[in-house]
Amino acid sequence: MKFKTIPAHIGVIMDGNGRWAEKQGKKRTEGHREGAKAIDRLLDVALEHKIKAVSLYAFSTENWKRPITEVNAIFNLLIEFIDNRLEDIQKKGIRIQHSGNLNKLSTKVKQKINTAVEATKKNKSLTANFCLNYGGHEEILSSFQRLQKERIHKKISLEKPVSPKEFEKYLYTYPLPPVDLLIRTAGEQRISNFLLWQIAYAEFFFTNTLWPDFGRESLEEALHFFESRKRKFGGLS
Questions:
Q1: DSSP per residue, 61-111
Q2: Count of domains in the chain?
Q3: Most buried among 48, 53, 124, 203, using CB within 10 Å?
Q4: Is 15 a catalytic residue?
Q5: Which residue stretches, if any, does this entry annotate as coiled coil (predicted)?
Q6: pTM surpassing 0.90?
C-alpha cells in the first residue's frame, strides 16, 4: 500500500497494555510484554513506508506513581528489548535515540540505553526515539535552563530574544523534526504531557485499538487519516 503523503515524524502514546492483559485474564506485566511486540511491528511498517522518525512514549515522569512491581517490570522489559533486538535493529538501519531525564534511572538501565544509542548512532533508515522518564513540562523547563547556562557560558545577554530554532536545539528530541502525526491508542483522547512543543501542528489520530493489538492495519489506517488532512499551519488552504 502506497501513500502520496507520509509524515516525517510520528509520535505514539502507547496506551492499553494493562487493559489488554486484564481482558486476557493475565498480569499487567504480560500486557507490557505484548506491547513490546507491537513496537517491533510498528517499526517494520514504518520502515516500509519510509517514515523517518517515530517517538514512542515508553515511560512518563508521572508513571513513577504506579506500583513498584509494574515499574520494575517495565524497565526489565526495556533491558530485555535492547538485549534481544539490538542486533536486528542494527541490520535494519534503525537509529535508537532517547528523550527524557536519565538521572532517576538505574545505572543498568542507563548503560543499556547508552549502549543502544552509541551502537546505532550512524544508522539512517529510521530513528526510533524512546521517550523514557519523559515529561513535556520537564523537557521545556530543562531546555530553558540549559539554554540560559549556555548563554552565560558564552557571555550572551539573557535579555536577547530566543528564537524557536535556538530553543529547539536544547530539546531532548533534537535534531528530530516536529511531529506530523500523533497517535494515541486505547480510546483515550488526551496528550498526557507528551511532546508538548513538538506537536504544535501535528494531526491527532485516536483509535480504540489497545496497544498490544496495534499492527500494520492500525498504522495504515492512521496514515490514511493523515493523507486526508489539509495541513494549513495557521494559513488558508
A1: TTGGGS-HHHHHHHHHHHHHHHHHHHHHHHHTTEEEEEES--TTS-HHHHH
A2: 1
A3: 53
A4: yes
A5: none
A6: yes
